[in-house]
Amino acid sequence: MHVDPRIGALRGDRIAQRAMQEAVMLAAEDCRREDGLSRVIGELEDYGAGAELAECEALQRLVGAEEAARAVILPMIERLVRQQRETPLAQLSLRHQSGPGFHFLQLAAKGSATMGLALHDGMVPATSNPVATFPDAERHEIVLAGEAEIEALRIVTDCGDRVEVARTVRRVDRGDCIVLADADCSRVVRRVHGCMLALRLARVGDRPRPTRQVDLASGRVVHKASGNRRESQHEMMVALLGRMKRSDAAPVLADVARSGGDHVRWQALRECLALNTSLGMDTLRTLASDASAPLSSHANALLSQLVERYPELEQAEGMPCRA
């Protein structure tokens, strides 16, 4: 494997690594202290705490007028680009993500609100009937460069595992605004002409509904995920205890399965069954016998399946889980 000499020299030079990283971090912090951006970030904190966008004058102007957005964002981008050229091996000190055809750079986050740049590069051809994601968030985007054909989506009928989606095709270019109000609204990018860059402001609600992925051809909900980051963290913690084979955690997982939040109870039950089958089966029977519990029907179905396949589980006592 070829290693660039500059990278090779940097490997053993911790002082240089730290100096480069601190330079990038300080550049970002300096930008946030400039008058225009500091005011926007101050209002972003209010917005993230629950204030209406109309109450945040600078923030509302930022996502409502291209000139205002450029005036605030461009100095920061120019400064960071200069810094990156001076220290090309330093890691950018901003949260970012990249995927086929889409890239996102988070410029600031306060409370439940985030602000960042979203780039669609048009490298992935759009399918005629894609899967659309409907997160429970209020989103405002203003196009800073490029143009694209998008399809605005709104769920008009919700039957749980299937929805009816109203679809409107729209062309957007520089200066246009896109507003998505809640979990029933989304949009897909059909075609990008070159690249499209947008400034995105988003806020998640206090008790967000699950994020849904919908097959637009059939209206079928193909996937659901918790819209609350903290809930997702709880699920990962429970799963990690199982992967670590922490049998001493089985009683705690049983308690979570019986009385925890709906988002984590099923995962806790699965891990409890794997770590301590006897305790897991007792917990499963408890859930199945409580007709008022949200998981009762699912618990009954799982109990029947397990006992049918493994009859010995009817008398499970200290045995490893075979399921």
Total beta strands = 10
Mean pLDDT comes to 87
What's the name of the CATH homologous superfamily of the largest domain? Answer: Jelly Rolls
Helix fraction? 40-55%
Q: How many domains, as an integer?
A: 2
- Tell me the series of helices and strands, N- to C-terminal: HHHHHEEEEEEEEEEHHHHH
Oligomeric state of shown chains: single chain
Question: Gap between N and C termini, in Å?
Answer: 44 Å
Task: Kindly provide the name of the CATH class of the largest domain.
Answer: Mainly Beta
CATH architecture of the largest domain: Sandwich
Question: Can you offer a commentary on this structure?
Answer:
- The protein is of the alpha+beta class and 323 residues long.
- The protein folds into 2 domains: 5-225, Jelly Rolls; 229-315, no CATH class.
- Helix content is 41%, strand content 28%.
- It has helices at residues 5-11, 14-33, 35-48, 57-62, 66-86, 229-243, 250-259, 262-275, 277-289, 296-309, and strands spanning 96-99, 102-110, 113-120, 131-134, 137-158, 163-173, 177-180, 185-204, 211-215, 221-225.
- The strands form 2 sheets. Strands 1, 2, 3, 5, 6, 7 and 8 form a 7-stranded antiparallel beta sheet that branches. A 3-stranded antiparallel beta sheet has the order 4-9-10, with no helix packed on it.
- The longest helix has 21 residues, at 66-86.
- The relative contact order is 0.09.
